[in-house]
Write a sequence for this structure.
């Protein structure tokens, strides 16, 4: 298992390099312009100079190699220096700078992480916690009232887009009832009970929207996987042996059913970091999703490149984690 | 606090406050909550150029003089506006001398001196800095500090309109001590300074989260001890225009939201909640349809849409251009897409009032389908079996492009319908704004390349002086492969008469003469049907009913007088 993990990790390096090149090339080919949003009153000569200041006048490969150096050497060194307080070299290294804000991309990401993890991460956690029991009961009591209602709600949650549920909830709970704020305050710091309550209030609506979506998706998987296993021979054997129904369900069936579900959940974790673009935008949570979408709209290529690449790293990593989890959950699977 | 107690408290407060001045004390009105759905990326306007950055930074850093709600230049950091009469502008028009208010202080307590003004010029003109406001310093030879409160700007040639450098929120003064190590290529590296410039304005930056939220607090060293009324400002970014409007007009969570590009009927429903109003500031923005006077035929290859490719097969006939203009009903376009945020216009220069021509309003502002049809009939454009007019094998069938935007697409559909009534068919196309306005010479879809017959967008001019704007329709400003497709003369207009008048404008000093020339140039463009001006666009913003003292301006930052804003008691 250990050697397998090491082998996979080593193999990931060339994969990621290729991915980074493909992203860079695609972004470069896209007919987007970082100056496209500037007022037309800025004359062409000045635009040319702004472009040059961004380094856009250099050839494609030079820019790519520069980004590689900034991302893989300068940024890690910088983090290392900050963590240890040691200084390597003169400390005057070019960092990956965003074009729109002219500030280091990594700082922007660090600033956005908390609200994304709080809102999108919690919604994913709640979604998973809710989905497993709903899926299990739905499958065990197939075609019961619970299953019918559960299936209906999960189908609705799965098929109605978040930009619709989000706006409907704002109109009901913010405009009409005025129970919850429609705008998320990223400046709010939890210091005491009242600010904690305020934080709960502002997280409620976005988390509700995302939990419904996540839970619906995972619950469908759990239900299908449980149904597959419930009709297996080993279940009949267990019951024939006189194993208690609770143990049959939760020990035998659930453990086997979780194998595909774990993959789905593990592969879904990187999407937490990519944020929930639409939901963040609607509630102005301004996390990583909003950062990515504004960067795409403003053609802020260094920011888009770095963010997308970090997502690529996470996806590769969580693929590996899912594979390793397989081995742990299912003793039949051995990689060595 | 429930509603009754709040009302009671309000009444008591109103009674006790009655008779006292509206904003008696600095910082007495608490927090002002502002919503910009286009989030602010930086506080250094010299590195951005965006309108959102301009407005946010104008609360902190100030120019020597600004534009008020009517477009007049008024002194901010200067004692008075230099003119020929008061001797501030030299007789030969090559220098302008600014006197700075004595005793001015930066928000960090240090003294504001003429050196800071000189430094600002050096900062923006340094090599490799990519200063977005460099055009403001065009023609400036030197900027010198005569003494700590006097600055002399010398131009390379006589400058009839010298209120460019250090005038308006696009050209504010930054502190030398803070930015001295940030010249040229080092400019983007000074993140702390770019996010929190030290200024002279009513507020200072407390915390800046790029593309998210900015917290401002009162500048204790602001020159007027009674202002501003608000103790702090929170400027939140993100989301979309409609939900921003809702946050002010319906839920009342915010006091002010900028740029409400929302369908008029949606806004009308929100306004019914009675929590706020929409104020529209008109500047110089005009939505127009440009007519391509050159041939955009793809068969021409490199010569496509250039003078070398020859004139447009249909638009070389002025009757066709005029008929297109006559067939348009501007009122319907305004009503459907702009509401109170737009007015019908036939001018490319819609303001300030002194520059506005009324010469063509009589015939141009109203739709006349019959006259347009007659014009085309007389010119020999006959309707074919498909109802489309043609002459000598040239069909009046055009490609009409614009940027992707729901109002623009609605306008396109309306115009298509109007033109169908005179036997002209158009194919509609919309291109993502970042591509259309991006100006990438490799892309075939930019508004500069104009690989279409007609294109629609909005443009305006900076400040209140239209001189550089009028120069955009000069012959040599036409984009072509030779200029890397740069240039502002999109219709490829070329008229020696126009060039002569535009050159004359750049040498004319007297305001009345300048205004007469601008009107003449404007009328020339309308009467030659170089473009079809459609809508004079304003900038609508939503304000809570409790905010008073707002004077919307389309000529400078919308928050130019935020020091005077206060909350109704």
């Amino acid at each position: 298992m250990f050697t397998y993990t090491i082998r996979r990790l080593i193999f990931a390096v060339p994969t990621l390099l290729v991915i980074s090149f493909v992203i860079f090339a695609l972004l470069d080919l896209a007919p987007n312009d970082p100056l496209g949003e500037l007022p037309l009153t800025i004359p062409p000569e000045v635009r040319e100079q702004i472009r040059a200041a961004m380094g856009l006048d250099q050839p494609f490969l030079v820019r790519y190699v520069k980004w590689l150096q900034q991302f893989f050497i300068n940024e890690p060194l910088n983090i290392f220096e900050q963590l240890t307080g040691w200084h390597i070299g003169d400390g005057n290294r070019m960092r990956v700078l965003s074009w729109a804000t002219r500030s280091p991309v990594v700082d922007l990401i660090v600033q956005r992480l908390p609200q994304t993890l709080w809102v999108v991460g919690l919604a994913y956690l709640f979604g998973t916690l809710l989905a497993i029991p709903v899926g299990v009961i739905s499958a065990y009591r197939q075609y019961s009232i619970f299953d019918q209602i559960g299936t209906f709600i999960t189908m609705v949650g799965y098929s109605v887009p978040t930009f619709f549920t989000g706006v409907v909830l704002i109109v009901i709970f913010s405009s009409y009832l005025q129970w919850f704020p429609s705008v998320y305050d990223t400046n709010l710091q939890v210091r005491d009970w009242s600010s904690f309550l305020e934080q709960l209030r502002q997280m409620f609506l976005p988390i509700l929207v995302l939990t419904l979506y996540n839970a619906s998706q995972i619950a469908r998987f759990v239900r299908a996987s449980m149904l597959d296993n419930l009709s297996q021979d080993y279940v009949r054997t267990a019951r024939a042996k006189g194993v208690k129904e609770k143990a049959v369900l939760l020990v035998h069936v659930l453990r086997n059913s979780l194998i595909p579900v774990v993959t789905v959940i593990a592969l879904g974790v990187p999407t937490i970091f990519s944020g929930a673009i639409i939901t963040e935008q609607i509630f102005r949570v301004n996390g990583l999703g909003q950062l990515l979408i504004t960067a795409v709209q403003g053609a802020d290529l260094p920011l888009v490149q770095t963010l997308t690449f970090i997502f690529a790293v996470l996806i590769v990593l969580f693929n590996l984690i899912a594979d390793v989890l397989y081995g742990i959950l299912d003793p039949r699977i051995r990689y060595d | 606090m429930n509603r009754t107690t709040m009302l009671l408290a309000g009444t008591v407060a109103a009674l006790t406050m009655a008779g006292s001045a509206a904003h008696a004390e600095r910082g007495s009105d608490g927090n002002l909550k502002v919503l910009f759905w286009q989030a602010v990326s930086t506080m250094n306007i010299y590195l951005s150029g965006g309108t959102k950055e301009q407005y946010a930074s104008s609360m902190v850093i100030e120019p020597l003089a600004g534009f008020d709600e009517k477009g007049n230049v008024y002194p901010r950091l200067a004692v008075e506006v230099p003119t020929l009469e008061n001797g501030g502008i030299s007789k030969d028009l090559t220098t302008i001398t600014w006197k700075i208010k004595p005793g001015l202080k930066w928000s960090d307590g240090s003294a504001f001196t003429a050196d800071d003004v000189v430094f600002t010029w050096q900062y923006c003109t340094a090599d490799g800095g990519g200063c977005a406001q460099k055009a403001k310093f065009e023609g400036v030879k030197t900027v010198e500090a005569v003494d700590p409160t006097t600055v002399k700007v010398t131009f390379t040639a006589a400058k009839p309109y010298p209120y460019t450098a250090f005038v308006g929120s696009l050209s504010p003064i930054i502190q030398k001590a803070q930015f001295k190590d940030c010249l040229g290529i080092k400019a983007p590296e000074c993140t702390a300074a770019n996010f929190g410039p030290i200024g002279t304005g009513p507020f200072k930056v407390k915390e800046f989260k790029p593309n998210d939220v900015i917290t401002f607090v009162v500048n204790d060293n602001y020159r007027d001890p009674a202002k501003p009324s608000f103790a702090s400002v929170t400027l939140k970014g993100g989301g979309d225009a409609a939900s921003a409007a809702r946050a002010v007009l319906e839920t009342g969570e915010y006091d002010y939201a900028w740029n409400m590009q929302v369908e008029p009927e949606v806004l009308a429903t929100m306004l019914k909640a009675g929590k706020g109003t929409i104020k529209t500031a008109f500047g110089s923005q005009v939505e127009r349809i440009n007519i391509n006077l050159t041939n955009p035929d793809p068969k021409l290859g490199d010569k496509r849409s250039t003078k070398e490719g020859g004139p447009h097969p249909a638009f070389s006939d002025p009757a066709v251009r005029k008929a297109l203009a006559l067939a348009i009903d501007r009122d319907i376009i305004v009503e459907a897409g702009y509401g109170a945020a737009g007015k019908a216009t036939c001018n490319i220069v819609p303001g300030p009032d002194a520059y506005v021509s009324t010469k063509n309003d009589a015939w141009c502002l109203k739709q006349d389908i019959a006259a347009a049809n007659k014009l085309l009939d007389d010119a020999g454009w006959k309707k074919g079996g498909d109802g489309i007019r043609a002459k000598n094998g040239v069909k009046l069938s055009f490609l009409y492009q614009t940027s992707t935007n729901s109002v623009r697409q609605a306008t396109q559909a309306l115009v298509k319908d109007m033109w169908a009534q005179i036997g002209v068919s158009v194919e509609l196309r919309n291109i993502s704004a970042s591509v259309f306005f991006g100006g990438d010479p490799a892309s075939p879809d930019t508004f500069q390349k104009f690989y279409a017959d007609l294109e629609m967008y909005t443009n305006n001019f900076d400040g209140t002086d239209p001189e550089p704007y009028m120069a955009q329709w000069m012959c040599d400003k036409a984009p072509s492969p030779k200029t890397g497709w740069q240039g502002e003369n999109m219709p490829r207009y070329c008229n020696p008469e126009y060039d002569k008048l535009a050159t004359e404008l750049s040498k004319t000093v007297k305001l009345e003469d300048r205004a007469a020339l601008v009107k003449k140039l404007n009328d020339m463009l309308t009467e030659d049907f170089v473009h079809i001006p459609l809508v004079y666009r304003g900038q609508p913003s939503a304000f809570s009913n409790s905010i008073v003292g707002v004077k919307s301006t389309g000529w400078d930052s919308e928050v130019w007088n935020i020091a005077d804003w206060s909350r109704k008691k």
User: Anything to note?
Assistant: Chain A touches chain B through 56 residues (CB under 8 Å). The radius of gyration of chain A is 24 Å.
